[in-house]
Amino acid sequence: MKIKEATFLTMEPLGLLPFYRDGLRFPVVTAEEEQLVVQAGDTALRFVRWEPGASEEAESRLARSYEGQSTPYYHFAFNIPENKLDEAKGWIETVTELGKEAGRDISRSEAWNSDSVYFMDPAGNILELIARHTMDNGIQRPFDPDRDVQCLSEIGLPTRNVVFAVDQLEAIGIGSYQGRNDSFNPVGDEEGMFIVVQPGRRWHFTNLTAECYPFEVFVEGVGKLLLAEDEQGLKLRRN
User: What is the mean pLDDT of residues 36-59?
Assistant: First the structure.
């Protein structure tokens, strides 16, 4: 699936501007007090303002969907050319510190045949650059951040009922990736997927755990989706 837009909650959208504009070099579409929009390859990445206790007055339906008190943070990944992980890693190290685990700063997945690096933005979101060796997207030139961050290809979707969430997503045409599982179940494909997991699972290469915060996406061929958690589990709203 292709994620054309993704919208996340954050406390201070403009506080993220230097990181995404100057560090990651993402083109800026909108920079306002209420929202920051940057372009990450084929995906528009939107951060909208949220503050505790203000959900009822919030302008966006995304902000109104969250009534919690903890500051939202998310995990999302960007595809890069499958043969350029080392060069991309070198670039990110000039921007910010990489996450490490057992002394390593590259995550290797044999099951997915991919390699990744992890890092965080100033709001505490967990970002990942992933080189998927199953994709025919290699390049024969030096890695260029302005051209080679291709799209948003993963978004973490914590939910207390993984099976219930996956059933809803499959019902609208977003199928499981590499089979079904009741605790860790990616849905979608290598161009774009939701990582459906139980809350409390530790995100790789961080000390943070998966927590339930709403987000909104526009998926090509599916439409706009608001994904939020209620007492039963995932509450999926489709426009």
Answer: 87
Residue 226 scores a pLDDT above 70? yes
Between CA 182 and CA 98 the distance in angstroms is: 30
Q: What is the DSSP string of 115-181?
A: EEEEEE-TT--EEEEEEETTSS---SS---HHHH--EEEEEEEE-S-HHHHHHHHHHTT--BSSS--
Q: Is the pLDDT of residue 53 over 80?
A: no
